[in-house]
Amino acid sequence: MIPRSSRRWCCLLGLLTSAGCRGQTSSEPPIVVLRNMFHQDRYNAQAESQLFRDGRTMRMPVEGTVPREREISPELGQGRLRDDSGYVAELPPALAERFGGALGLLERGQERYGIYCRPCHDATGSGQGTVIRRGGWQPPPPSFHQARIRQMPDGQLFATITHGVRTMPSHGAQIPVDDRWAIVSYVRALQLAHGE
User: Fold this and answer.
1) Largest CA-CA distance found in the chain, in angstroms, rounded
2) Radius of gyration for the chain, computed over Cα atoms and rounded to the nearest angstrom
3) What's the CA angle centered on 86, arms 189 and 120, to 5 degrees?
4) Nearest Cα to 89, choosing from 9, 145, 151, 46?
5) Are 83 and 89 spatial neighbours (Cβ–Cβ below 8 Å)?
């Protein structure tokens, strides 16, 4: 059983709540406690700003800022040796751990390869994908089974995916670092499967 004082408060609360519901839309502006958070100035990209001396709205990040998704290690993030003397020869061993082992890395590589690479390079890596056959793309991409690409360091293959080469566009912005390495591992598996 509810005590009498609690019943009174419930009735009063019910009356106040029902008094606030008039059954029609109000033309009054909403009641906002922090009004300056409700009406904020907004800049469009490439617009002018009167707040900054240079008049630009688009600002460079603070010096030393590192995006959360950026890979700090040059071996993993760029495919380069720490001293920048060349490319990483093989996939960094720590990478497979991020995918739960080599099998997880390979499966992810196969999935990403199918999305980003297969249209031009085809399922076997011969360089005769659908885009090439239908569009007559010139020059067609090289086969992954050429000796030159088989002997290429894994870091160079990673850098090619990242920055592009000749008619191949850069995929650095759209494919995350770990997925680019997964694609490299899958390309190496294709080379082993279709080896000569």
Assistant:
1) 90
2) 29
3) 40
4) 151
5) no
User: How distant, in Å, are the alpha carbons of 5, 29, 66, 162, 164 from that of 159?
Assistant: 74, 55, 20, 5, 8
In the 8-state DSSP scheme, what is residue 59? -
Rounded to whole angstroms, the Cα distance separating 93 from 114 reads 24
Q: What is the pLDDT of residues 152-163, one digit of tens each?
A: 898 889 888 888
Local structure of residue 141 (DSSP, 8 states): P
Asked if 90 and 154 touch (Cβ cutoff 8 Å), the reply is yes
How does DSSP classify residue 147? H
pLDDT one-digit tens code per residue, 68-109: 766 677 777 778 788 878 888 888 888 888 888 888 888 999
Q: Which residues pair with 168 in a beta bridge?
A: 165
Beta bridge partners of 127: none
Nearest CA to 117 among 44, 180, 54? 180
Six-digit token string for 127 = 């360089």
Q: Which two tokens stand for residue 182?
A: 């997964």
